[in-house]
Amino acid sequence: MAQREPQRVVAELGRPETADETADRKAESSRLHRIRQTPNNLVLSLLATLAAVIVLVLLVPRGDTTIDKTVDYHSVAADAQRSLPTTLADPKLPSGWRSNAAEYRTGAADKVDAWYIGFLTPENEFIGMSQAFGANDVWIAKQLHNTLADGSVTIDGVQWTVYDNRDTDADVGNAKYALVTQTPVSTWLLAGSASPAEFRQLASSLTPTITAETEKR
């Protein structure tokens, strides 16, 4: 036969508590326990969230990592060139110029392949160079955020179309200033935040490749 739990004597009452009093006491005890657990759970939740944030901060690369890194675009160009029939630009630039990106981008939805180099200039500004194959006006407009040409400039005998968006308040991405020219082989697009003088310097370094493409056809 199971033993009955001894009745609890309540000092304040001087007698054992009734079944209803026992039930009320346990209910109150549970309520107080839940109240104490709520802030505890909140603190634990906040600590877990903070720990997760710290881990993400430690693991995710900083935003300026890509800007600061240097890429040997000459080597990337040589590697990509082995499997391509067309000559990729490998501009020779003076000290102070460096690259933070270089890749051969194969056809996306627009079916346009492009050899891309991101340059940081001596003034620490940016110019992205694209040598695109099979490009058309739609591709150019997309790269330049549908901005309009406002003139042209001839550099080493090569005529470039100028897109000058430095005074606009619109979001034009990297197309603050741009130069575009085309040959029977490639569409050449330079776009970024550098000065026109630095654009001219980069465009001039591309002249031998552009001229060779023009003379092929």
TrEMBL record:
Residues 1-32 are annotated as: Disordered. InterPro entries: DUF4245. The chain crosses the membrane at residues 41-60. The keyword Transmembrane helix applies. Keywords: Membrane, Transmembrane, Transmembrane helix. Residues 14-31 have a biased composition (Basic and acidic residues). This is DUF4245 domain-containing protein. It comes from Orlajensenia flava.
